[in-house]
Amino acid sequence: MDDDLPDATPYGTVYEQALTLIEDGADEFHLVRNLDFSSLSIYDDQYADWHTSYPLEAMVRAHLLRDLMGYTMTELHSHLRENPDEAVALGFESIPARTTLGRAYRDRFDEELVWFIEYTSEQVLEYAHEHGNPLGMRALSPEEKTEASRRTEQRFIGEKTPEVINELRRLVFSELDLQRPDKGTQYDTATLLGVQSLMGLTQTAANQGSDMYRDRADDQDDTPTGETLLHYLKQLDTDDIVGLVDAAIGPMLAAARRHLEFDRPVTLAIDLTYIAFYGEQDEAANTGPENERVVVQGAPPSKEYKWCYKFATASIVGDNTKFTLAMRPVVKGERLGKLVRELYWAAREHVTISEVYADAEFYAADVIEAFREAGVSYIIHAPHDERIARFIDRMDHDVAVKHAHAIYGPVAGGPTNSRTETTLAAVPKADTPSETVVFATNMDVDDEIGVDRRSTKRLINRYRRRWDIEIGYRSIKDFLAYTTSKEYSVRLFHFGFAVILYNMWLLVDFLLKVSFDELAYRIKPRLPAKRFMELVKGVLTGIG
Question: Based on the domain organization, do 453 and 505 belong to the same domain?
Answer without folding.
Answer: no
